[in-house]
Design brief:
Shape of chain B: rod-shaped
Distance between the termini of chain B: 56 Å
Oligomer: heterodimer
Shape of chain A: elongated
Number of helices of chain A: 19
Number of domains of chain A: 2
Structural class of chain B: mainly alpha
Helix content of chain B: 55-70%
Distance between the termini of chain A: 125 Å
Largest sheet of chain A: 7 strands, mixed
Largest sheet of chain B: none
CATH topology of the largest domain in chain A: Beta-lactamase
Number of strands of chain B: 0
Chain lengths: 583, 155
Amino acid sequence: MRQQYARRSQVLAGVMAFFSLAVIVQMTRIQNSPEAAVFRQQSENYAYELKTFYPNRGEIYDRNGRLLAGQKTVYEIGVDMNTMTDSHAIAFAVSDALGMDYNQILEVLQNPPEGISYIVLADFVEAQTALYLRELKTALQEQAPEGALGGLTGLQFQSHPMRSYPENALGSNILGFVNREGKGYFGVEENYDNLLAGNPVQVLVPTDPNKAFEIPRVPDGTTLILTVNRDLQASAEKILDNALYEYGAQDGVIVIMDPRSGELLAVATSRRMDLNKFWNYGVVYSNATEFNSAISKTYEPGSVSKILTMAAALDSGTVTPNTTYLDTGSVLIGGVTIQNWDQNPWGVQNMVGCLQHSLNVCMVNLAVQMGPGTFYSYMDAFGLGHLTNVDLAGESAGRLKVPGDSDWYPVDLGTNAFGQGVAVTPIQMLAAVSAVVNDGRMVTPHVLHAMVRDGRQYDVPAQFAGSPISAQTADTLTEMLAISLESESSQALVPGYRVAGKTGTAEIPVDGFYSAAQTNASFIGWGPVDDPQFMIYVWLERPTTSPWGSETAAPVFSEMAKKTVVLLDIPPDSIRQQIRASR
Amino acid sequence: MNLQNVNHLIHAYRIAPWRVQRQWFGSALLAVVVLAMVAALYLNVTSRTAIAGREIQDLTAAITLSQQVSSDLQTQLASLTSADAMESRALELGFRPTEPDEVEYLVVPGYVPPAPVDLSSTTLPQLSALTIPPEFNQSLLDWLDETISSSRGIQ
């Protein structure tokens, strides 16, 4: 009996062992079958997913740490088609909250493209609206019967950053903007797009949480600190707007620069747009040069460029401040008679009188005495016809015709001497005249003060663009210009501060002829003369109350300079001299 | 000693059949227990690794969220203190723009005019992520596989 049980047990054990062995053999066979290899291959395809980590775009600050361009969170609103329960409810809620067409949304949800499991309904939705929809979804879920799903089940919200400009239109011409694809256009956003955007990093991320991976540290884009002073920029824009209204000008520019370093403190243009609504670009501007006319729009500068002619004449030894000549009111050059602005003779004048009364005849004489070679060599050294390389996108080079060009005529030597027949940008004029302000050294205008990356700040050093004239010439000319303003009791004068500068009134060609009624009125000036800390250029296009720069641009310069000395904490000359004496 | 005595001795010292069976059973049970322990250890390590991996994912998401919130707040603050907003508030409070001749300057010995902002961080971030030692992200099977592979490599 006992042996019988033992035999049965052995048979049972043998059967179980056989089945176990069969299971193991089958497992081994399946795992090594060709089909298993296919499945293994498929699983490897899903074991990792390639993720691109986009760094946050760098911020932009003004020189005092005021945020000019940052980020804000917006939402992508989509629907997971696998979990959606009520397409009508989603279409109604989304159309109501986002102002979209109900039928259009319903059509997309009820007839999705084949193979699509997620549909984007809207992107760049403001956080407030997205959070309202999310709360609605939660409320409907809570109201649903137990075990049932809410009406907005399947509605999903994905947050992501978007460029935001807290100052709206302030300094829009300097900043530029970023479109929804993250590409920078115009100004700093375009010029430093690569730095600001950073470098996206692509990483293979394992989907298996068992495989803990090293999360890549994606460095943010470089943060930029500009040389711009936000408060000065706001004042410049306000003063410019008032000037356009007061003088009936069509367009205008005010640029303020530190002549010692080339740092642009403010660049105000009359056309500005709210950068948070960059899609209005086409409404505000008719062409790209209007976005920042201070660097893109060329024009004939007129008498402000007499500073350059006089600088060349002094530096080349052609004249001294005391050199006199007899002004007859007109001069013949290249077969064309050039007259003074008032068409009157001014008699015997020295070079200070020449600048003070802005005499065209004097300038023509100087250019003729220097000769085309010397004159154009100086103008070239001053950078006319060349880019200043200001670090803003969209700069124009202007045009300086020179002997040898097919469209250069001998009369051009005369007209170029007083700023007609030459095309420049306001930033070019500032760069050129900076040589006079800065002891003969021309600065390169720039808006980038520093870059911040990985917590470290790298300051950008000032760059110089050559020395077209000597320090002595620069000092002499500055003194002559200061005396000129004081002698004529110019409206550009700033009480308490000694300033130097020059007005400009250039006729604008209309239908091929220069019009005396339509002018470019301008003023370029700097101060304090003994220690220049600011340089201001004012350009008003086609002022209607008066065509003269002395009556339109000069008072705007004075107003801007008064605001500048307050905002930059520049004490009056008497206080500064007192401080200097006490040291 | 005769042959009968020898047989007696062999019989006396031969292991009883039930003892042999028990030894086999015990060995098998020991193998099962060892396997169960290894399986439990593997399960434990695997589950802890999975939890750690999930926590890393959660913390990464939390960092991203915090950065977004921080950027939002920074931008909101900048909007509230924008040039327009500050000017409006100043005017509402009865202030007006000052003129150059209204400003009084005091000579303060040792005064240094304010320099442009410095946004350098006082605590610099790590330039690269720390390397996670293999002990923290390697399963037991991975370790065994690596050990076997390396020993094969040495041979």
